[in-house]
Amino acid sequence: MNIRISRGLGVVAVLYFTANFSAQKTTNDTLPKEQKIEEVVMIGYGTQKKSNVTGAISSIKASDIDDVPAGRPEQILQGRAAGVSVISNSGQPGSTATIRVRGITSFGAGSNDPLWVVDGIVVDNIGWLNQSDIEGMEILKDGASAAIYGVSAAKGVVLITTKKGAKGRLNLSYNGFFGVGSASKKLDLLNASQYGMIMNEANMNDGKPATFSNPSALGNGTDWQKQIFNSAQRSSHEFSISGGSDKSTFYTSFGYYDQQGIVLRDISNYKRINGRINSTHKVFDFLTIGQTFAYTHTKSQGINENNEFGGPLSSAINLDPTTPVVVTNGIANQPFPSDYNSPNIVRDPNGNPYGISHFVNKEMTNPLAFRQTQLGRYKWTDDLVANIFADLKIYKHLSFKSSVNGKLSYWGNQAFTPVSYLSPASKNDFNNLFRETQKKFEWSTENTFTYQNKFGEHSLNVLLGQGYYEYNISSGQNTTYKNLPTNDWQEASFNFEIPQSDRATNAWDGKETHKTSYFARVVYDYANRYLFTGTIRRDGSSKFGSNNHWGNFPAMSLGWNVSNEEFWPQNNVVNSFKLRGGYGVLGNDAIDDFQFANFLVPGSNYTFGDDIIHIGYAPSTLENPNLKWERTSQFNIAADLKIFKNFDLSVDVYRKKSTDILRRIDLPGYLGLINNPFRNIGDMNNDGVEVSLGYKKNWGGFWVFSEW
């Protein structure tokens, strides 16, 4: 068992626990160095020796991330791959991160997040994934390596492989940590006396009388930052058991993650429960079947953290320090008792009203009173991600693999809004209970033939594949009950009998889209010296009209392992040296569905010669059968070196150009369109240089890894 204590930025301490137990006796590694397995990386629908990779691929292994206390799995990419930026969207527990692979690719169609592929399953996010289940991650950064994913790959591709069982042993593993965090710094703001002096000075400069007769008597007043910030606990517990025999292997895991927010933790928190089962079964010598299955449930509460207009953080730095947190000496004794005239003012558990500022209101409110109005609000998700596959060995060098993949998601939220008065601009005269539920199912099937052979000094790998993908099979509904006979969130329920006029329900169905793909790849090398990879993918999407249903996305890359040449002198400075370069064309179809077509949609109601409202229909947008994919072409040249036996240096230079960028154009309102149409109207260049330096050293059985 290993126990480590780590301290990061701010006031935060994390205690790690890891334990591994094996039912198999450990044996010494007696293989000679030349027989040891060389590191391989995922390249999409297959693997390749790292030394023969010709594309720009960054690789992250489980050993690199086991000790990273990340709240979400995408955050473990931070600082571990050149050209990949990871920026947390906020400090809110469970908040997502913005991922960019080699910068921004498009400014019109969808986000710039990369394509996520987990065990061959294309998913829209990886927030459901348990970090300890990850065996490895590969980031396909250039056009040559990502082209195998065609129209979805312009913004980069992240391949994730989860852990599998191994034959001959039973392993039980636990990985966990516990941490306590708090705000590392607060803003230096005025106390009540200083605020009174400034207010008086401002009034006198404006020719008005002083507001405060004796500012020095106000003292320090209320420190609103102190009122909202608190210590916050964070913990993670992850268990796994794996093993197998010559015929079957399995890996199963369970994880629990709990994080409190450092701002008003009772309305700012995040919990995640997840489980996984992976297995493979060798039915015959020529047939292997297997499956992966993962389930994740999350529940979260959040504050309005990134908004200058309202919310606890904004209120804490804008409210005046002369306003009390709670009025304990009677409303009549307040300087401005009329501020508390409303019968709906929010009170603490003792019946005392929360303070209301006379000088700062609008959207700024007492954050502790605001907290009372947010209790009982939450969001939740349930994600089930699974696939089944069969791998058929047709003969020695030829195999066929078929897989069916799917993701089923349920999510929603519930909120009770009580009758309340926080300020003249922030009040609710009627309570309501709101609940929304949504679901979405997406599935795909992929079939590939792989031919792999080595004859003499020549090595050849050929891939032929086909895929079919269904997206956005979705629906949702929400319900609102108003004027409930209780103002307590714990008592609020849809079981109350209320008039139909106080009930509202909405429901909707999503627009289904589909894609069909054909792809091929040839990987060739001669004597591990001269390397070639060629890829082509043809995608057809229902998002585009008949003129541009299909798009072709080719790529090619070359490599030269210079250090494998006979003329290369063996030395202790540059141990290996490889040159590589490639060019590829990728696509992007991340626009709303059926934007090439013009539909008549309801909602444009009207009157005509009378006071009767008639149901009206209007064009959704302008028809454009020539609407087509965005295309991103990327050129990459690079050098990979191993120096002084323990240092790995990679330098990549790239140019990325996006053309036919999809973007809405502004049209005058008198045309009567519901939405402005998409057009292929832009292009953009993105150039860059990536430098990655890694260090790996074994000292007496202890490995040391570092990367810059």
Molecular structure report:
- This protein is mainly beta and 708 residues long.
- The chain is 6% helix and 49% strand.
- It has six helices and 33 strands.
- The strands form six sheets. The protein has a 20-stranded antiparallel β-sheet that branches. Strands 5-10-11-8-9 form a five-stranded mixed β-sheet. A two-stranded antiparallel ribbon has the order 3-4.
- Strand 1 and strand 2 form a beta hairpin.
- Helix 5 packs antiparallel against helix 6.
- The N terminus is likely disordered.
Brief overview:
The chain has 708 residues and is mostly beta strands. The chain has helices at 62-65, 143-146, 192-205, 224-228, 312-318, 367-374; strands at residues 2-7, 11-22, 40-42, 47-49, 57-61, 84-88, 97-101, 115-118, 121-123, 134-140, 157-162, 171-182, 232-244, 248-260, 269-284, 287-301, 378-395, 398-417, 420-423, 426-428, 432-455, 458-482, 503-509, 513-526, 530-541, 550-561, 574-588, 600-602, 617-619, 630-643, 647-664, 678-699, 702-707. The strands form six sheets. The chain has a 20-stranded antiparallel sheet that branches. The chain has a five-stranded mixed sheet with strand order 5-10-11-8-9. The protein has a two-stranded antiparallel ribbon with strand order 3-4.
Q: What number is the mean pLDDT?
A: 89
Structural class estimated from helices and strands: mainly beta
The Rg value, from CA coordinates, equals 30 Å
Largest sheet geometry: 20 strands, antiparallel
Intertermini distance: 29 Å
Describe the global form: globular
Total number of beta strands: 33
Question: Total number of helical segments?
Answer: 6
Q: Give the uncertain stretches in residue-range form.
A: 1-12, 24-36
Helix-residue proportion: under 10%
Please indicate the percent range of residues in DSSP E strands (runs of 2 or more).
Answer: over 45%
